[in-house]
Amino acid sequence: MSKSGSGNIKLSQSHISEMVKVLPPSGIRKFFDLLSSIEGVISLGVGEPDYVTPWHICEAAIFSLEKGYTMYTSNKGTPELRAELSKDLYSRFGLDYNTDDELLITVGVSEGLDLTMRAILNPGDEVIMPDPCYVAYPASASLAGGVPVRIPTTEENNFEITAADIEPRITPRTKAILIGYPANPTGAVLSKQGLIEIAELAKRHDLLVISDEIYGRLVYGVEHTCLATLPGMKDRTVLLNGFSKAYAMTGWRIGYAASSKEIIGAMTKIHQYTIMCAPTMAQMAALEALKVDDDEVEEMVRDYDRRRRIIVKGFRDIGLSCFEPKGAFYAFPSIKVTGMTSEEFAEKLLWEEKVAVVPGTAFGQCGEGYLRCCYATALPDIEEALKRMGRFVKKHSKK
Ligand code: PLP
User: Fold this and answer.
1) Best residue among 26, 106, 109 to mutate for probing ligand 1, ranked by most atoms within 8 Å of CB
2) For residue 273, what is the enclosing H or E element?
3) Is domain 17-46+296-396 in CATH 3.90.1150.10, yes or no?
4) CB-ligand 1 contact for 112 (6 Å cutoff)
């Protein structure tokens, strides 16, 4: 082992795990590292609300600090938060989760996803998921020793994963189907009928379904169906959700998992050793978010909807066809008319017009020919970005 000049051990690739070595870096972060070096960029890149957390929620956290709530909580989360969550899931969906052993407070959906994979997968087990999909889905399965199996989805099929497409990919190693609707990056919402068919398939093949419903509150003119409400699905579903998107609380790092006591018990064991508990202050804030009326969430949803209509129309007006997103806060316009790859388009756009978007391929091969554009961005910025993109598309469109 060699030493560097500073006296520290000089580390080499041989010190890094083989699994991590082959894991590709997140296509979102990789691209955004470029951003910091360029001035005057309008970003439609990072997927988070441009709102700050409603003040009454911040106040609850500040108050909890003033009262001295600065210690660990129960591993599963405070009993008060779990009780409120149980009430919330019952009032919104009629789902009856036991606060003692069917709910776990996590460090966002991110931790919930990681715990689920580690709790259910043996090495080589397969997890079926859509392509394109949120970047952490395949990575979390791989990191837990599993194998992500991607099911192509297309614009023609509204980017919906279907039971008919899943069934031929089921093998004796398939353990679970992972879905996340409303979807990042496409904004697609799976129809209730589509969900019913996936639920029936899961029951027929005795599979678990992991359902990331973090954008469940952000739907426009359609209804979100919680997968666990479908007949026979409550114990078969690992419902993941959190406060990041609906309550503009990305930095608080707070979410939850709801499932059978066997699955939650297994996840809690890992959580005990790795995390201990979600941040106490964030749990106090989440409790307040659940307790108080949802007027602010509804106002944010109305505002996202306004921006959604403007950006979709804007893309179509500049000659890019654009799938109509029905949920989340992403538009997924096609750039196929330009003949460029997604990566080429995004990189050139950044240098030539200073607009940051994410290449669709960051979310899987089926994202080729598309861009992810987050419209949780101030309206004047969206309008300016559209103007610059219009200029860019005109310049680069194939004659
Ligand atoms: N799931 C999806 C689909 C997301 O888009 C994101 C963040 O962008 C997350 C989960 C992460 O959520 P959290 O902040 O609760 O960890």
Assistant:
1) 109
2) helix 261-274
3) yes
4) no
Query: Phi and psi at residue 42, in whole multiples of 5°?
Result: -95, 125
Domain coordinates in residue numbering, the chain: 17-46+296-396, 56-291
pLDDT at 7: 59
Question: What DSSP letter does each residue of 27-79 carry, written as one string?
Answer: HHHHHHHHHTTSSS-EE--S-S-SSPPPHHHHHHHHHHHHTT--S---TT--H
Read off the pTM.
0.95
Task: Choose the CATH number for 56-291 among 3.40.640.10, 3.30.300.30, 3.40.630.120, 2.60.40.10.
Answer: 3.40.640.10
Residue-wise pLDDT for 105-133, tens only, equals: 999 999 999 999 999 999 999 999 999 99
What local confidence, expressed as pLDDT, does residue 399 receive?
Answer: 55
| 255 in contact with ligand 1, CB cutoff 6 A | yes
Ligand 1 mean position to 132 CA, how many Å?
15
pLDDT value at 223 more than 70: yes
Q: Is 46 in the pocket of ligand 1 (CB under 6 A)?
A: no
Predicted confidence at residue 279, as pLDDT, reads: 97
Q: Are 347 and 13 in contact (CB under 8 A)?
A: no
Q: Does residue 242 have its Cβ closer than 6 Å to ligand 1? A: yes
